[in-house]
Structure formats: C-alpha cells, structure tokens
Amino acid sequence: MAKASHPLSETDSRIAAAMLASPRASWRTVGRVLDISERTVVRRAAPLFHDRTLRATAVRNPVWFPDLIPLALRVRCRPNQISAIAATLARRPDTIWVDILGGGDEICTILFLDGPDARNSLLLRDLPATPAVQSWTSHIFLRVFPAAFDWSGGLLTEAELTSLRPELPAPAAHPALQPLDHALITTLVEDGRASYTDLAHRADTTALTARRRLETLVGNQVVRLATEVDLARLGIRTEALLWITVAPGGLEETGRRLSRHPQVRFASATTGSANLLVAVAAADLNALYHFLSDTIGALPHVTTLEVTPILSGVKRTGLVRPGSL
Q1: Statement: residue 1 has pLDDT above 80
Q2: Which of 106, 152, 211, 230 could in theory staple to 156 by disulfide, Cβ–Cβ 3.0 to 4.6 A?
Q3: Whole-angstrom Cα distance, residue 210 to residue 203?
Q4: What is the pLDDT of residues 39-84, one digit of tens each?
C-alpha cells in the first residue's frame, strides 16, 4: 500500500496544478500564468518530475481506436487477497486505473482491452480462474465527457486555466491516423513531456512535423495528455466513485454538467444498472457531503446514487503509483 506523504508547499502545489491542467505547458508559460519567475518554476518543477511526484503521460481515446474496448470492472475479492489482486491488475499493460474501494473487499479497474478476444479472455477465463475473486460486474464506457480532464484540483482560477490552455487546430472530421502518429503516441505514453526532438527521433521525422502532428492529435482528442500526482499532496484527501442512475433523456445533460464541476476528475456514460460513472476528488468528507447534497441533489434527472469511497489508488492514467505495490 502507498506510504503517507507530506503536502506540497503552496508554490509547488500551484505548479503541480498547472501541470495537471496543461501537461505540456512550457516553464515560461507556467511562470507567467502563476506570476513567478521561469527560473523558480524550473527549480521547483524539475525535482518533482525527477522523483516521480509528478508523472507525465498520455492516454488514447478509444473513439479513434475501434479495436479498443473501454471497460470498468468492479471486482469483489477476499479481503486478505485484495492487495495481491490489485497489484496483479496494475501490472497489466491494458489497465488504466486500479482503485481499492469501500470496505477493502472491492476493486474498480478501468481497462482498454484490445478487442473481443482480450475481453473474453479476461471475463471468461482469467477472472473465473482466480480463487480470490468472488464476483464482478463489467461496464462498457459509451461516452467519456472530456471537460473533466481540464482539472486543477481547485488550485487555479478560471483566468489562470484559460491562460494555460494551448491554442490548438480546429478538430477535423476523423482523418486517418498516420504511421508516425502511432510512434508519437507510444512515446507520449512513456513521457508526456518528451521534447519535440525526442518525439521526432522516435517517429523518424522532423521536430517541426512532430510538433504539428502532436497538436493535431491533441486538438482532435485522439490522445489526452495527462499529469499524475498523489492528490493527498495537494491537500485532497477524499476520493470516491459515484455510480449514478440517470433518466435516459437526461444522460447527456447530466454528464456534461458534472464533468465541468471542479471536483470531478472523470465522468463517463456506461452500460450496467448505473449509467453514469463519476470520479470525485474533495478536500475532506465534509466537502464530499456537500458535493452530494448540493450538486448531485440539484440535478433533475438523477434517480439513484451509489457512493464508493476510494481507499487507495494503485494505478492512475496507466501509471502505477510509487510505493503502491
């Protein structure tokens, strides 16, 4: 399990928040937006990336990769084996998130499975053959609401967020991906802040072409750039998954509204008894209560709600958390 970690300073927290909101922002841009010197940003940020407090990566958008099956699994396990099961899931290259939930007997994992054969192998062979697994339910993501990805932990103002957002080309109508795009994406998954020179080398192209193609990939939401950090170091100590049932006619509106909330890290329409999955990050239990009461309670189309607290995040955005295994 992850070890306790001390909170970041106010300056480091704001730099981390800028990296969360704009993972490839230049040090100069971060300094300008936060009103600190570029030298201070470099001096503070470089060690955070070096010791893996901050980790930059990227995630493919399944809409652009038809063979990918985005799936959430809720797995009930024997409590004395839950850490081992979570670690096994986290080591899989196709798991994106792995969280230990509730009373310590349930795991939620998000996977991008490489087609029906991979899905069937997991659900029909691997899970049934694991004695410690007692039961599971699967939920396919029908639509991910992207507004939640523009998340900064509430540490930045709207004006600062706007200044951090890069100007990207207008989305195109699903142009075909080029071979070099796949090489760029592979490199970004390994290091979301890889230089354009490194990207060009890996994709066998020029730095200028690498930059243009990356901007196109991000602008068309083919890939999502991401920065990961232990949220407790930002003073966020309560996380939960909400399994929400929404009247079908209100699913799009509800998903979009929640995805824009500053406490929502992720929101997706899903299959299953609940048709909306939302990941919430709050400062404490009181803040979570007010989110449920004031925000969820005010939504007209919500019919039922299940709240599952996250006890431990083992893997996030495809990255195993330091000290979690």
Answers
A1: no
A2: 152
A3: 8
A4: 999 999 999 999 999 999 999 998 889 899 999 999 999 999 999 9
Range list of β-strands (E), the chain: 55-60, 68-77, 95-101, 106-114, 133-144, 223-228, 238-246, 264-270, 276-282, 302-316, 319-320
Alpha-carbon span 22 to 39, nearest angstrom: 19
**Hey, what amino acid is at 63?**
V
Using the 8-state DSSP alphabet, how is residue 19 labeled? H
Q: What is the pLDDT of residue 221?
A: 87
Residue 194 is inside which H or E element, if any? none
Given its phi and psi angles, is residue 274 left (phi above 0), alpha (psi -120 to 50 degrees) or beta?
Answer: beta
pLDDT higher than 80, residue 205 = yes
DSSP state of 173: S
Closest CA to 148 of 21, 259, 279: 259
Provide the token pair at 83: 């850490």
CA separation for the pair 213, 182 (Å, rounded): 11
Q: What is the CA radius of gyration of the chain?
A: 20
Residue (of 51, 52, 50, 54) closest to 14 by Cα position? 54
The residue assigned the tokens 């929101």 is 267
DSSP-derived 3-state class of residue 165: coil
DSSP state of 322: T
> pLDDT tens-digit profile of 229-287?
999 899 899 999 999 999 999 999 999 999 989 899 999 999 999 999 999 999 999 99
DSSP β-bridge partners for residue 70: 112
What does pTM read for this prediction? 0.89
Task: Give the rounded percent of residues in the chain with a pLDDT score beyond 90.
Answer: 77
Does the pLDDT at position 324 exceed 70?
A: no
Q: Which DSSP state fits 52?
A: T
Taking the CB of residue 318, how many other CB atoms lie within 10 A of it?
22
